[in-house]
Amino acid sequence: MLGTIERAVKYLEICKTPENGIKYSAASAPQPRLPISAAAVATLYNAGDYDSPLAENCLKYVWDEFKRSDRSWTKGGGHDFYAHLYAAQAFYQAGDKYWDEYFPKARD
């Protein structure tokens, strides 16, 4: 029988989209959502899952979305603070490569 953390990770795997983001729920539309994807990376890292393909691919999706310049660093489609709350955790834990580029832009 799987424990709570294992079931949570399994659910994120079910919610993964072809773009490697995470959709809102298993039953929702198939588009990835940046805020939920950022929360998924932070959740995976907090569960100690740093090196799985799910964590790595989802981090890449979130990073690529933040690097897109179409809307500056305002992200989240109405959930900007939520997106940044979890993206900051994910990028900080992912290391200097991410944090050093993310933080000054987010802060300013």
Characterization of the model:
This protein is mostly helical. It is built from 5 helices and 1 strand. It has helices spanning 4-15, 34-46, 53-67, 80-94, 96-107, and one strand spanning 70-73. The termini are far apart.
Amino- and carboxy-terminal Cα gap: 47 Å
Total strand segments: 1
- Give the topology string: H per helix, E per strand: HHHEHH
| SSE class | mainly alpha
Share in β-strands: under 5%
Give a short account of the largest sheet: none
The amount of helix comes to: 55-70%
Stretches where pLDDT is under 50 for at least 5 consecutive residues are: none
Number of continuous helical runs: 5
- Could you say which overall geometry the principal axes of the C-alpha atoms support? globular
- Average pLDDT number: 90
Radius of gyration: 13 Å
What key phrases describe this protein's structure?
108 residues; mainly alpha; 62% helix
What secondary-structure arrangement, pairings included, does this model have?
Layout: H1 4-15, H2 34-46, H3 53-67, E1 70-73, H4 80-94, H5 96-107
Helix pairs in contact: 2-3, 2-4, 4-5
Summarize the structure.
By secondary structure, the protein is mostly helical. It is 62% helix and 4% strand. The mean pLDDT is 90.
